[in-house]
């Protein structure tokens, strides 16, 4: 009789358990991000008459009250790595570890335009594995510096469409793991709850005048955040609509409109972190109630204006979110529909000092912010949306 073969890999489990412990401990040390109320002008409030009894106005008609529309931003820039992608990176690493795809010494590879890679470099450093970010050469120097600060290595390609194939090539060459945010984002996050961003938003709104928001507005990069939010509001049976904003040169909106998931684009988005040249596997269009296309000039102009309103710089993707949120505020005010709207402050505008906040860079991109600034001026003065 042949001898019994035995392959025992139990030794790997101790390292994995410690890696999971390190990530979970890091999460417990990090407080939840703030939900900030944006001060809207007086036009966002109005008076509604009290109830009218069967006898008409009188005592039953008394009790008029002031109502209005409230706007909130979930400030994801306060995560340890400074962006919304910190949540995604934590989920991706836990998912890879618990599936056995990352063990001691496994090089982790990602295809990223910046912020996800910054956060993933942080977690790779935390558990002690190598990290390589495959990205286009146009990624902001501030982001590449943050990746390298956490011990990651930046591997550049010339065209946005090349990042996936290059990440897979490196995975095979190095015996590593392509963590693949664009495929894994919607499945790595527990959309039912377990401290995800949706659960956090609703918990923080619990004592507000309108605890169930009428709209939540987000952009799509991987599509993981919109998938989490859309699934969560359906699972909890909340009367909340999900709007996804999309910048120029992204195929998410055309794909949503045409129901064609095979669409691709030749050029990449100029709004870092959102917009893709292909429909990513994590983009679940069926959970989205409305999509809003946002011109790049509008994203940048709004990022600058919101930075002034909040007293600190916000990034271009936050500008995209806020342009969509402002349009919905105006819609609700015009219809005299009281309620609340929530959107995301994705990252700090300090990362874009040499791009969106640099007039010379804007000129090099042929950006003309004037028309968008006129729309914003009108909105902030009157509540009307003229875009």
Automatic annotation (TrEMBL):
It catalyses: L-cysteine + H2O = hydrogen sulfide + pyruvate + NH4(+) + H(+). It comes from the Bacteria. One of its GO terms (biological process) is L-cysteine catabolic process to pyruvate. The keyword Lyase applies. Residues 64-347 form the Tryptophan synthase beta chain-like PALP domain. The keyword Cell inner membrane does not apply. Its cofactor is pyridoxal 5'-phosphate. GO terms for cellular component: cytoplasm. One of its GO terms (molecular function) is pyridoxal phosphate binding. Its EC number is 4.4.1.1. InterPro entries: Cds1, Cys_Synth/Cystath_Beta-Synth, TrpB-like_PALP, TrpB-like_PALP_sf. Gene3D superfamilies: 3.40.50.1100. It is found in: Cytoplasm. The modification N6-(pyridoxal phosphate)lysine is found at residue 85. It is an enzyme of class 4 (lyase). A cysteine desulfhydrase that generates hydrogen sulfide, H(2)S. The H(2)S produced by this enzyme modulates the balance between respiration and glycolysis, and contributes to redox homeostasis. Probably eliminates toxic levels of Cys (which can induce oxidative stress). A cysteine desulfhydrase that generates hydrogen sulfide, H(2)S. The H(2)S produced by this enzyme stimulates respiration in M.tuberculosis, mediated primarily via cytochrome bd with a lesser contribution from cytochrome bc1/aa3. H(2)S modulates the balance between respiration and glycolysis, and also contributes to redox homeostasis. Probably eliminates toxic levels of Cys (which can induce oxidative stress). HAMAP family: Cds1. This is L-cysteine desulfhydrase Cds1. It comes from Gordonia lacunae. The lineage of its organism: Bacteria, Bacillati, Actinomycetota, Actinomycetes, Mycobacteriales.
